[in-house]
Structures are given as structure tokens and as C-alpha cells.
Amino acid sequence: MERDASAKLLLPDSNGAEEEDKLAKRLWVESKKLWVVAAPAIFSRISSFGIFVISQAFIGHIGTTEMAALSIVFHVLVRFSIGILMGMSSGLETLCGQAFGAKQYHMLGIYLQRSWLVETSFTVLLIPLFVFSSPILQFLGQTKEISSVANTISLWYIPIIVSYIFSYTLQMYLQAQSKNMIITWLTALALVLHGFCCWILVENMGLGVAGVMLSMNLASWIPIIGQLIFIFGGGCPLTWTGFSFNAFTDLWPVIKLSVSSGVMLCLEIWYNSLLILLTGNMKNAEIEINALSVCLNINGWELMLSFGFLAAASVRVSNELGRGSSKAVKFSITVVVLTSLTIGVLLWALVLAFRQSISYIFSNSIEVAHAVADLSILLGFTLLLNSIQPVLSGVAVGAGWQSTVAYINIICYYLIGLPFGLLLGYVAKLTVKGIWMGMIGGTLVQTIVLIYCTWKTNWDKQVSIAKARVNRWAIDAPNESGNNSA
Predict the structure, then answer these.
(1) Which listed residue, of 37, 147, 165, 376, carries a Cα 20 to 30 Å from 257's Cα?
(2) What residue ranges are annotated as transmembrane (predicted)?
(3) Residue 108: per-residue pLDDT
(4) Residue 446 and residue 391 in contact, taking contact as beta carbons nearer than 8 Å
(5) How far apart are the C-alpha atoms of 382 and 375, rounded to whole Å?
């Protein structure tokens, strides 16, 4: 009797322990799936961004005008182009992820080819921005000296912009299958070669800016060539069955999803670029641009981590939607947001601890170092927000909400954040600090809205929408071997 009573008393505790064990096991399994995508994505993005940072370090030691010109080109023209092309590729990420989860493997190769066709057309429209960059930048308020150097740099950037057509689409195609380790190794190789080539071309051969840009071009195309060899050589036997005429059919849905995806991400990336552009119209513009550029580079490193988690969130959400598991979707979102936030808090603490000395990585200027230290508090808040917001954007990409998020971005960024920043910067005389504070406010509002949308979403309904999308496109482009599933 006494033994039975003891057993009954122990039963709730044992059930609770079982539930904890199950939760711990689910958390471990989900974390492994998360890091299989996130770790290679983070490392490859850090390597890619590292190519720019190495370039900036070499050019920054050539001269402050050259450094400011590179910052203007990258943060205005290149980031604008990246926003469009990377955003358009996120439409491919939605389609490939959901098709892979639904085991419609043959569709991934067709989606990839359709994206190449669509993005090539849009890239042609971007080229004039780089050819005529000098008058465009002068019209936007930049000095003639900086605009002239920026024009030389922007012409070197044209082959790199063309490379983005393949870079981002191949990345989305491979990571939907959790095969992005090949990208990691290739981008790491490109990073090492870029550093070595810059040292040879700039320090030893004295080619200056031309040497840095030549090395950047080589580093941009090496990973693409490697990925194409991997895919065409049999690395993706289920999803790549060769070039298909089906790639030329049903392009309009791809265009719509790609454009809405491009608008969504472009609005986010261009929002930060405006900070550099508006700073160029202030007094002591060169020092302000360089200081802000250092802060945005630090933020860029953290964004590479967040974009890795964005990729993981997108892949996990799209895969589980394709499989038809709404509970797994919600659990995946919780795990990836908490993981990214934890890393964001750690980086925030490190930046504040080393705020007095961190700028010397990029510039020898004492004035720039003081300006960076002065902006460090705002940088810290930006790091915290950017550990959450991109991940929620990844959830949106995985679910195919790009059009909705584009409207949210317009309202939060351009109708709230930007006007508030201009008010604080120019009317309240807070200069670059005021502009940045206003823009942080816009990002905060956007993050809160995305949290609310994600929380209130009916994920069972999203499963039905994903199934309908995959089934419809699979019917429109049947497997040429006559088998619709692997």
C-alpha cells in the first residue's frame, strides 16, 4: 500500500521528466537540422563579406578618398543591386524549399533555370547605374572628387554584379537540399586567394585600386565555377537532370514571386544604404562616411550571421510546409529565433567592450576612431535588432509572404523610420546620430510587426497553400522522365 502511494507520488515527476527529455531531444534534433544549413551559410556569407572587408582594408590604406569612394559604391550601388538580385533569388528559395519538402525533386533544377532567365533580364537594367555612376552620385549630393574615384571602382564592379546572377541562385538551390558545404569550401578558397592576390597586386606590383578590384573579380567567379562543376558533374543527381525546355514555360509566376522578393529585400538593404548617402551631404562628410562605414561593416559581419539564420529559417519553414507539418514549422521558428538572438547579445557586448579600438582594423585615422566610438551605442542597438529581424524575414521567405513583407517594409522604413531620422538629423541637429536613431526606430517597428504576424499566422492554412503551389507547378512542368517524385 505504502509502495503504491509512493509510486503515485512519483508519477507526476516522472511524467514531467519524460516531457523534459522529449523537449530536449526535439531541441537537439531541430538544432542539428538548423546548423546543417546555418553553419555553412554563415561561413560562406562571412567569407563573401570578408572579400569586401579585405578590399576596403587595402584601399583604406591607399587613401581616405579612395576608401570613401569604395564605401559609397558598395553601400549605395552594389547593395542596391544585391538587394534586387538576392531578393529575387529568395523567391527561388521559397520554391525550391517547398518542392524539396514535398519530394518534387525534379522541379528544383527547372526553378533554377527559370531564375537564371528572369534575373539575367533584370541585371541588364542595372548595368547603366555603374557605367554612369559619377553623375548619378553627384546628383545625389556626393563631392566631385569622391564621385570620380567611385566611377572607376563601379566600372570594375560590373563583372561582379553579373556574377550575382549565379551566386545567389546556386546558393538558394543548394541550401534547399542542405548541400551548401560545397559553397563554404569554395568561398573560403576565394577569400584566401583574394587576400594573397591583393598583397601581390597592391603591395608588390603597386597597382593600387585596379589591383584590388581585379582580385575581387577573380574571387567572385571562382566559387561559381566550382559550384557549376559540382552540379553538372553529378553532385545533385535527384534535382539536376540537365537543361530543360520547361524552364521557358510558366515564367510569369516566377517573375511575380521574384520581383516581390526583390522589392522586399531591396527595401531592407537600401534602407541602410540611405544612411551612408545622407551622411555624404553633411559637414566633414569624409570622416563621417568612413566612421559610419566602419560601423556598417561591423554590422555587416553580424548580418552575415543573421543571414545565415535567415537561410536556415527559410529552409526549415519551407521544408516543413512542403512536408505538411505545421507543428514542426512553429518549433523551428522558435529555435532559430532564440539561437540568433543569443549570438546577437554576445556580439553586442563585444562591440561595446572594444568600441575605442575596433576602427583601427579599417583605418589609421584617429578622428575616425573617435567618431566610431561615439556611434557605438547606436551600433549596439542595431546589432540586437538585426539578430531577430532577418530571421523573421527568413520565415516570410519560407512561407512565400514576400509581397506582404514588402508593404510592411515600405510603411515601417520609409514612412516611419526615414522621416523620423531626417527630423532628428537635420531639424534637431543630431546629424548622423539622429538619422541612425530614426532608422533604428523604423527597424524596431518592423520587427514588432513581423513578430505579431508570425505569432498570429494559421500555419495549418499555410501548409495547404504550400501544397497547392507545389502541386500546381509540378503539373505545369511534369518530370521529363515521366516520374513526378524521386
Answers:
(1) 37
(2) 34-60, 72-95, 116-137, 149-170, 182-202, 222-245, 257-278, 298-319, 331-354, 406-428, 434-455
(3) 86
(4) no
(5) 11
